[in-house]
Amino acid sequence: MSNFRPPLDMPFALQNRHDEPLLRIVACSSAGDGNATPFEPPLPENPGKAPTANRAGLREVEYRLLAIAGRRLLVAEIPGHPQFTRRLADAAATADLALIRVDASQGLTSQTRLHTRIVAMMGVRQVILAVGWMERVAFDSQAFEAIVQQYREFAADLGFAGIQAIPFPGPSGVDWQQAEPSLSWYSGPSLPDYLESIEIPDSTVHPMRLPVQWVSRSEPGLPGLCGRLAAGSVRPGDAVRVLPSGLQTQIETLLVDGSERERADSGEAVTLTLADSVEVRRGDVLATAEAPPEVADQFEARLLWLGEQPMAPGRQYLLKLASQEVAATVTLIKYREDIDSGARLAAKTLQQNAIATVNLSTSAPVVFEPHRANRALGSFVLIDRLSQETVGTGTLDFALRRASNIHWQALDIDKRARAALMRQTPRCIWFTGLSGSGKSTIASLLEKRLHAEGRHTYVLDGDNVRHGLNRDLGFTEADRVENIRRVAEVAKLMTDAGLIVLVSFISPFISEREMARGLFAADEFVEVFVDTPLEECERRDVKGLYAKARRGELRNFTGIDSAYEPPRAPEVHLHPAENTPEACVESLLRLLD
Ligand SMILES: Nc1ncnc2c1ncn2[C@@H]1O[C@H](COP(=O)(O)OS(=O)(=O)O)[C@@H](OP(=O)(O)O)[C@H]1O
Ligand SMILES: Nc1ncnc2c1ncn2[C@@H]1O[C@H](COP(=O)(O)OP(=O)(O)O)[C@@H](O)[C@H]1O
């Protein structure tokens, strides 16, 4: 074994492809206290770096570059703690092989099953089941076989092409060099031999895909299109298509590391220029002209939920796929998978570490390929728009419909024409605040004033809409998200009809209010924060609901046992506890004028 300079903490994504093939391994452990990793301690030939710990005293993820007989290995070692699930999914997304270690005395744990499902979902097809601490079961071959048998049965439906189980002595996993006499009954390959024998799929045979990371205009002439080849190879003169626009052109020049090249392969970072001045933007994908990927905005997908807060269908997240970024919503949870048995379970929301099959809808068409055909264009992450944290990762199975199959119906009479007839500027005035804060009182008074001035208005009130359109919804977080999504869509249609719409819903979450805002033109949406302190609302207790909630007779009551997230920058901030309803309406009218 030779030794490469260890690229400490180097993510897979930053590795450039060189002449020798690189086997990417994701290694994780469900053994012991979960804080150990299978490749420790660092081998004498390959010292790596000393394990680092984060503030909580947990080991961090480490990347090591090793070599065995001319084969280079990039190993991502993921500590077994549940906090590392996201890192495991990240590393598994590009790994060729997973090394999953168990403790012989514990056998399979829920962690083993979760890790195995995640690596399978992210497209890893080869698994090494490293059965460590064999001395704890007296090096018993039957104990080993029982674990292997159990694992094979569990993993039978997960689509692995190969599962190799290898026994190990000791607490620290992989003993590369020394044969352990007590394991002489094991006749399979050693870990180095097995790693050497694994075939790496050739990603250059796939049609070329280049997600454009940025467009460089630093040189005179046509812009340089920069990105990392996600599949296939590219040469000057190749016919390519730009997606989603579909425009066809040719590669003019190809640069790698600043020098002109005749060919570049999957994994390499390249800069291209095109023969024509076709419009290309960051997020577009360049592809082989005769075999382009699909473009769609509705998908069936598999989703691993990572957020501490449960996933709510209907809530908008930011979806990142290759270099594309669009708003996305889970429109339906088809089923959640039981991590142990794989059984399909009904679910209204997803808790952290749940895996589910869902329908996903994006706000704009996305260039993609099914994950089984291309991992780079078939996997995505979901980001919470407020915290900017990754809350989900997933893979696209197939498009539910092509984006191009559904078009906006062009109508002769549009919003502008309708509004002109009504002699008004359509608006959505969105009241948010606690129950009893005064939303309905103020909205109703404002409507009276507008009506008297000859304006065309409509009030959408939570209490009323919940008797009809939203009668199927309760007050869980997921139901409130859907409640607001529907009413925002209705308000948008009404504004489109030319009306001034007054929406009066608690609408407790920033995400959904921002989603609603996103449906309207910039100055069409007016967020009004009806900021009455909880104590005052509770003192008023118009409907006796606060008293009920305090007695524990009403669950999920906003302000008591369900959160209210105040707006950060509302257009109007009202303080009804200090001003009469009439005074509040006056200040609103001034703003609307
Ligand atoms: N658990 C719980 N939490 C909050 N509110 C409750 C609850 N149960 C019933 N109600 C009554 O429902 C009204 C709020 O409905 P909304 O559609 O505005 O709520 S939300 O926007 O979906 O949060 C609200 O009306 P307002 O007082 O006018 O706000 C309450 O009367
Ligand atoms: N300045 C004020 N603005 C609005 N409502 C007020 C004000 N002062 C007192 N109230 C009273 O508070 C209650 C608010 O109830 P409501 O308008 O139904 O609130 P919400 O729609 O937010 O649940 C009403 O009984 C209203 O008369």
UniProtKB/TrEMBL annotation:
In the C-terminal section; belongs to the APS kinase family. In the N-terminal section; belongs to the TRAFAC class translation factor GTPase superfamily. Classic translation factor GTPase family. CysN/NodQ subfamily. Residues 70-168 form the Tr-type G domain. It catalyses: sulfate + ATP + H(+) = adenosine 5'-phosphosulfate + diphosphate; adenosine 5'-phosphosulfate + ATP = 3'-phosphoadenylyl sulfate + ADP + H(+). Its EC number is 2.7.1.25. This is Adenylyl-sulfate kinase. Keywords: ATP-binding, GTP-binding, Kinase, Multifunctional enzyme, Nucleotide-binding, Phosphoprotein, Transferase. InterPro entries: APS, APS_kinase_dom, CysN_NoDQ_III, GTP-eEF1A_C, P-loop_NTPase, T_Tr_GTP-bd_dom, Transl_B-barrel_sf, Transl_elong_EF1A/Init_IF2_C. ATP binds at residues 433-440. The active site is at residue 507. Pfam families: APS_kinase, GTP-eEF1A_C, GTP_EFTU. The keyword Ion transport does not apply.
